[in-house]
Design a protein that fits this description.
The protein is of the alpha/beta class. Helix content is 33%, strand content 22%. The strands form 5 sheets. Strands 10-11-7-12-6-13-14-17 form an 8-stranded mixed beta sheet, sandwiched between helices. The chain has a 3-stranded mixed beta sheet with strand order 3-4-5, covered by helices on one side. Strands 1-2 form a two-stranded antiparallel sheet. Helix 1 runs antiparallel to helix 2 and helix 6 runs parallel beside helix 7. The longest helix is centred in the last third of the chain and has 16 residues. The protein is elongated. The C terminus is likely disordered.
Length: 383
């Protein structure tokens, strides 16, 4: 039997994906010495940090990849850690040489969509979580920022809560944070940085005012490595307060989805969140009416929160040459609520549920407008 070339093993091992960075470890310079001796592949790799949460998975995948090379009978794996200089070089490469700056500004090709509401309790976070997962299921690279700092709920809805109630923290590579991934969505939330005091006690509360809120949103946008995204969703806090103003300043290019329930008490307030977004230069791309009438098994229609609120918000925000559509009327659904509590969004767990189908239709509508340069101003002038 001819000797197995080490290059064949290096190629197989180099193609293994880092589960956090979603890039091949060969591209990330994590592969070290590789040799083959009498059918045994001796493989050395370097992880980004000590205690890397993905260490076991990477080691398993590397062993599997090396063993898949014809002629390899065993794999001897050595796992080390990058030097500070290597980590610095990696973070610079991940940032594309741009240094520590926010990558989602007006020149970005990533589509940024802020999901807002006038008041709390309208199901905005549930819509956002399901929409993010539905977009990812359509093959898009999706990031999600839980900007509702005081009322964060995204980690729980995406299943990022362990049996003991713990929420995984982002992996830190120097000053870069690698967000946890749930259902194909890269997610960051302040809830990932809070800890319980013990037992079944709740996560700590966030009692911050304007400057701290602004800094948190800015850090999520700057220091979290989302990679090359098609869509970045922001689950906004209800109302028109500090975070809405900060996002308007940091992301004037963002598009806005306004979520409301059908009742007048919610829809009247929802209009204001759209108006504030416009004042900061953002564009309202649609309205989602949540908790609309549901049809019971016997055919009875339960109109619990009234009707017409979504259409009223869309009409109020239209005009002056800017038409704001009612993208969907999502019926009230116990299934969506139960799936959110279970940490598996209904668009995955029960895709045939009427509410899940309505949210999937929103994702389909948004997917028809891919990111790109049409309509953008290029950074130069003709002579």
């Amino acid at each position: 039997m001819s000797a197995v070339p080490a290059d064949a093993v290096r190629t197989a091992v180099g193609a293994v994906l880092d589960p956090e960075l979603r890039r091949p470890i060969g591209e990330l310079d994590m592969v070290r010495d590789i040799s083959v001796d009498a059918g045994v592949a001796h493989v050395a790799i370097a992880l980004t940090i000590v205690g890397c949460p993905a260490a076991d998975r990477i080691a398993t995948d590397v062993r599997t990849a090396a063993a898949s090379v014809p002629g390899i009978t065993d794999v001897a794996l050595e796992v080390g850690v990058m030097t500070p200089a290597e980590r610095h070089a990696l973070t610079e490469r991940l940032r594309g040489g741009r240094g520590r700056e926010m990558p989602f500004g007006p020149g970005s090709l990533t589509r940024v969509i802020a999901v807002t509401s006038g008041k709390g309790g309208v199901g905005k976070s549930t819509v956002t979580a399901n929409l993010a997962v539905a977009l990812a299921a359509r093959g898009l690279a999706v990031g999600l920022i839980d900007a509702d700092v005081h009322g964060f709920s995204i980690p729980g809805q995406l299943g990022l809560v362990g049996p003991d109630g713990s929420v995984p923290q982002p992996t830190r590579v120097d000053d870069l944070m690698l967000p946890p991934v749930a259902h194909g969505v890269k997610t960051i939330s302040i809830g990932m940085f809070l800890r319980r005091s013990g037992g079944d006690s709740p996560l700590g509360a966030v009692a911050w005012r304007g400057p701290m809120l602004h800094r948190t949103v800015q850090q999520f946008l700057t220091d979290v490595f989302f990679g090359d995204l098609d869509v970045l969703l922001l689950d906004m806090p209800p109302g028109t307060g500090d975070v809405a103003i900060s996002v308007g300043q940091l992301l004037p290019n963002a598009e806005v989805l306004v979520v409301t329930t059908p009742q007048t008490a919610a829809s009247d307030v929802a209009v204001r969140s759209g108006l504030v977004a416009r004042q900061t230069g953002q564009r309202v791309i649609g309205v989602v009416e949540n908790m609309a009438a549901m049809t019971l098994p016997d055919g009875t229609v339960l109109d619990l929160f009234g009707h017409g609120g979504g259409a009223a918000v869309a009409e109020a925000l239209s005009g002056s040459g800017s038409e704001v559509p009612l993208l969907a009327s999502v019926p009230l659904s116990p299934v969506v609520r139960a799936d959110a509590d279970a940490g598996v969004p209904a668009v995955l767990a029960h895709p045939d549920d009427p509410a899940a189908r309505a949210i999937a239709d929103i994702a389909a509508a948004l997917s028809r407008f891919p990111r790109g340069l049409p309509g953008r101003s290029l950074p130069f002038r003709p002579r």
